Amino acid sequence: MKSGTSTKLKSILGISLTRDQMHGIVASRNGKGFQVQKDFHQELSFDPLAADPILLGQSIRNALDEAGIREKQCVICIPTQWVLSYQIELPDLSGDDLDDYIKLHSEREFPYPPSELSISLSRYRSVEGKEYATVAAVPLSYLKIIETAMQSIGRKLCQYHDGVSPRA
Questions:
Q1: pLDDT score at 3
Q2: Which of 93, 106, 112, 136 is deepest in the core (most CB within 10 A)?
C-alpha cells in the first residue's frame, strides 16, 4: 500500500490492536515533532481478525466517540500475530533477480502465495560480512479487514512505504 497524500499532517490518530484490546492516541505537531494530545483504551470482546469488519469499525468508533476524538487521518498498528516472517541469507544478486529469489523463498516459507501478501524486507550484514534479510508479510485479507473497518467509520488510513522494500 502506498501513501495517497504528500502533505504534512498537523495531527494524527494512532490505534494499536491486539486480540482483546485497543489503545489509541491523537498526536499533534509542535515545533520539534509530535505531542500526545489525547489517549484512550478499550477492551475488545472479540478478536479483530475474527470479527466482522463493520462490527470492528463500530467498536473503534464507539471508543473514539467516548474519548471525544474526531481525528480522521489515522495509522493502525496491527496485532503481531498477523505478521509472518522468516530470515534468509541473500546471494549476490540485485534488482529483479533478488526480488525473484525472495519471491521464490516466500512461496516456500509462507502458507499464502506472494500475490496474497504485503511483503516487506529488512536487509542487514553480519559481522562476517554476509548479507541477510528478515522478510515479513501480512496477508492482504487481514489488511482489508482493517481498511473496511476504518472506511466504514469515515477514517482515512495513512499508509507508509519507504520505497526500498520489494513487493512480491
A1: 44
A2: 106
What are the C-alpha distances in Å from 95 to residues 65, 85, 116?
47, 21, 22
Write out the three cell numbers for 162. 519507504
Alpha helices in the chain (DSSP H): 53-67, 95-109, 140-152
pLDDT of 36-95, one tens digit each? 999 999 998 888 888 899 999 999 999 999 999 999 999 999 999 999 999 999 999 888
What residues contact residue 106 under an 8 Å CB cut-off, 6+ apart?
A: 114, 117, 119, 135, 137, 168
The answer to whether the CB of 120 falls within 8 A of the CB of 78 is: no
Q: How far is it, in rounded angstroms, from Cα 20 to Cα 18?
A: 5
Q: What is the C-alpha to C-alpha distance for residues 103 and 112, in angstroms, rounded to an integer?
A: 12
